[in-house]
Amino acid sequence: MTDITLVKRTDLQLSEEQRATLRLALFEMIDGLGENDQKSWRRFWQWITRAGAGEIFSIETWAPRHGGFHKRHMVLESTVFRSQERIKTFEQFRLWLKLGAGFVDWMAGPRGGVVPVPRSISYRKCDEGTMRQFHEDAIDFLRSEHATRYLWPALSPEAADAAMEIILGSFGE
Question: Are 118 and 166 contained in the same domain?
Answer without folding.
Answer: yes
